[in-house]
TrEMBL record:
Pfam families according to UniProt: Orn_Arg_deC_N, Orn_DAP_Arg_deC
PANTHER family according to UniProt: DIAMINOPIMELATE DECARBOXYLASE, GROUP IV DECARBOXYLASE
Official protein name in the record: Diaminopimelate decarboxylase
Names of required cofactors: pyridoxal 5'-phosphate
Organism annotation: Flavobacterium agri
Active site: 328
Oligomer status and interactors: Homodimer.
Gene3D superfamilies according to UniProt: Alanine racemase, Lyase, Ornithine Decarboxylase, Chain A, domain 1
Gene (UniProt): lysA
Matching HAMAP family: LysA
SUPFAM superfamilies assigned: Alanine racemase C-terminal domain-like (SSF50621), PLP-binding barrel (SSF51419)
EC number(s) stated in the UniProt entry for this protein: 4.1.1.20
Length: 401
C-alpha cells in the first residue's frame, strides 16, 4: 500500500489503526499454493490465532483455505465465519478434556498432543478420527518463545514414545487419520525442515489409514531490511517431490497440510499511530505515540523489530529516534531507529503488523483496542469498530460498598 493511501485511512478512521491489505493476503496464499502445485491434495489451514477478525476468516474461506485453531473459541469463530467443520483442525495444548470433547461434538478434526489424553479420548470416543501431533525434537524457530519442537518443549508427543502411541491405538481401536508436527515459527533452514519431515514420514509409516500429513508452519517472513525469509518456492519444490515419493510408498491417497499464520498475514498488516510528543533528552530523541504494548506487544515480548515509516513526511531527512508508547512502564518499539524527520502529529506506520499484533492486544491502562480496516479493491472497509468506554465497563460490576 502507498503511504498516501495509508495516511488517508488514518485521517478517515483515526489512530491508532490496523490496516490489512486483502490483495497481499491473497498473494501470499497463492505463493504457497503455487509452490506446492505438484501436490495433488494440498490443504492450507490458516492459523486463526495470528489474526482472528471474522472478515479475515471469511477472506480465507473465499480463497479455499481451511483453519487451524488452538481453542474452542477459535473453532466457534471459524464456524461463525461459515467454515464447515471438516475444514477446521483443532490443535489444543493443555486444555481440558471437556473442551476437546466439545470440539469433537462440533465435528472438527481433533489433533491430540498428549499420551494420556490420547488414551482417555480413544477409550471414550473410539469412532472419532484423530490426528496425532508428534514432537520430532528438531531445533527450529527464532525466539525461544516461538520455538516449540525442541526436546524440552511442552508441545507434541515425543517421537521416542511411538511404541506407547501404537499400544494405545491398538488397545482402544481408535482411528488415526493424520500425523502432525509444528516445530515453531521462523524456520530459517529448509534442510532442517526437510530433516524433520523425514521423521514425520517415518512416524506416518506406522499407521495404515492416514488421510493427511500436516507439516505445521514456521515460514519466516522478513521484518527488518535484509532479513532472511523462507524460500517457499524452493521449499515447495523439495518437499513436494519427497512427499509424492512417500505417498507412492504409502499406497493410499494422502493430503499434505500446512497451517501458516504469519506467512499469510504478517506483511499485509500496517499499524498506524500518531506521534503525540517529540522529546529531546540527554541521550536520544523520543517519539512518543498514541499507543503502547497494549496494542502491539511483539517488540517487547519477542524482541521483534518492526520497520517504522513516517508516512506524514516520507521524503523527510532521516534522523535517529527512539519510538516509545504511552504505557506507564517501559514500552520501547524501536531504539535508535533511522526515520524520516518526525513532527508532533505525524503518523507512523509499523510494518508487518498483520500477525500476532491485534490478536495479542489488550485493554491495559484501560485503553480502547484500535479499529481494524480491510483495504480491499482500492477502498478501506471498517471491519472492527474502535472500542469505547462501554466496552471497558462491559462485564464489570460496580458495587457501592
Ligand atoms: C501458532 C501455530 C501455527 C502458526 O504459526 P506461524 O508461525 O504463525 O505460521 C501453526 N500451527 C500451530 C499448531 C500453531 O500453534
Amino acid at each position: 500500500m502507498k503511504p498516501t493511501e495509508l495516511l488517508q485511512l488514518a485521517d478517515q478512521f483515526g489512530c491508532p489503526l490496523y490496516v490489512y491489505d486483502a490483495a497481499k493476503i491473497e498473494a501470499q496464499y497463492k505463493r504457497l499454493t503455487d509452490a506446492f502445485s505438484k501436490v495433488e491434495d494440498l490443504r492450507i489451514n490458516y492459523a486463526v490465532k495470528a489474526l482472528s477478525n471474522v472478515t479475515i476468516l471469511k477472506l480465507f474461506k473465499k480463497l479455499g483455505s481451511g483453519l487451524d485453531t488452538v481453542s474452542i473459541q477459535e473453532v466457534q469463530l471459524g464456524l461463525h465465519a461459515g467454515f464447515s467443520p471438516d475444514k477446521i483442525i483443532y490443535t489444543p495444548n493443555g486444555v481440558s478434556f471437556e473442551e476437546i470433547e466439545m470440539a469433537a461434538e462440533l465435528g472438527v478434526q481433533i489433533n491430540i498432543d498428549n499420551l494420556s489424553v490420547l488414551e482417555h479420548f480413544g477409550a471414550k470416543h473410539p469412532k472419532v478420527p484423530v490426528c496425532i501431533r508428534i514432537n520430532p525434537h528438531v531445533m527450529a524457530g527464532g525466539n525461544s518463545n516461538i520455538s516449540v519442537g525442541h526436546i524440552d518443549s511442552k508441545f507434541g508427543i515425543s517421537i521416542h514414545q511411538m511404541p506407547h502411541i501404537l499400544r494405545i491405538v491398538e488397545n482402544t481401536g481408535m482411528h488415526i487419520n493424520g500425523i502432525h508436527m509444528h516445530t515453531g515459527s521462523d524456520i530459517l533452514d529448509i534442510e532442517v525442515f526437510l530433516y524433520a519431515a523425514e521423521i514425520l514420514f517415518e512416524a506416518a509409516s506406522h499407521f495404515k489409514e492416514l488421510d493427511f500429513l500436516d507439516f505445521g508452519s514456521g515460514f519466516k517472513v522478513p521484518y527488518k531490511k535484509d532479513d532472511i525469509e523462507t524460500n517457499v518456492e524452493e521449499f515447495g519444490k523439495k518437499l513436494s517431490k519427497r512427499f509424492n515419493e512417500f505417498k507412492k510408498e504409502y499406497g493410499r491417497p494422502l493430503a499434505l497440510a500446512f497451517e501458516p499464520g504469519k506467512f499469510l498475514v504478517s506483511e499485509a498488516g500496517h499499524f498506524l499511530a500518531k506521534v503525540n510528543v517529540v522529546k529531546q533528552t540527554t541521550s536520544t530523541v523520543f517519539a512518543g505515540i498514541d499507543s503502547g504494548f497494549n496494542h502491539l506487544i511483539r517488540p517487547m515480548f519477542y524482541g521483534s523489530q518492526h520497520q517504522i515509516e513516517n508516512i506524514s513526511n516520507p521524503k523527510g531527512k532521516e534522523r535517529f529516534y527512539t519510538v516509545v508508547g504511552y504505557i506507564c512502564e517501559t514500552d520501547t518499539f524501536a531504539s535508535n531507529r533511522r526515520i524520516a524527520e518526525i513532527h508532533e502529529g505525524d503518523v507512523l506506520c509499523f510494518k508487518n503488523a498483520g500477525a500476532y499484533c491485534f490478536s495479542m492486544s489488550s485493554n491495559y491502562n484501560s485503553r480502547f483496542k484500535p479499529a481494524e480496516v480491510l483495504w480491499h479493491e482500492g477502498k478501506g472497509i471498517l471491519i472492527r469498530e474502535r472500542e469505547t468506554l462501554a466496552d471497558i465497563l462491559k462485564n464489570q460490576i460496580a458495587i457501592d460498598l
